[in-house]
Each structure stands twice: as C-alpha cells, then as structure tokens.
Structure prediction request, 88 residues.
Amino acid sequence: MDLSDSLRFLERKGCHLCDDAWEIVERLGHGGAKRVDIEHDDDLLGTYGLRIPVLLDVDFGVLAEGQWNERELRKRLKRRERRRRKAR
Prediction:
C-alpha cells in the first residue's frame, strides 16, 4: 500500500501557504495524498479553518499545519512509516 493513501491535504482555494505546503508534500514523495478543499465540508471548515494547510493522516492525526518546516515534516513522516510497519 502506498503510504500516501492515508494522507489528506486540507486546503483552501487561493491559499498561498497551501500552495507552498503542497510543494513540500510533493518534494517529500507524497504527491498521492488526497487534496481536500475544506470549503466544501462544514465540519472540516470548523475544525481546521484557521489551521490550514493541514497534512492529516487518517490513522495517526495531524502531521503538519500552518507554516510548515520541511525538515520536521520529513522526520514526522519517517516516524509514521515506522509505526505503520510495526502495526502490520
């Protein structure tokens, strides 16, 4: 299973931070993450509206939000990968 399958990239149209964060996601090899415009979901909008962009793992929760640090996100993704392997 591609590890990007469980990732959700929460964004809004016209969000420059979202555009920058998506470039990081792609650079780190997770361009297969599902992109979700929170404007179309009231629950997501209420929960994440002020926190976007958000990289969310459906099993492990929020990996990054707001302004991202690429180095820190890389570490979090590696930890996530190790946890997934142990869970198998």
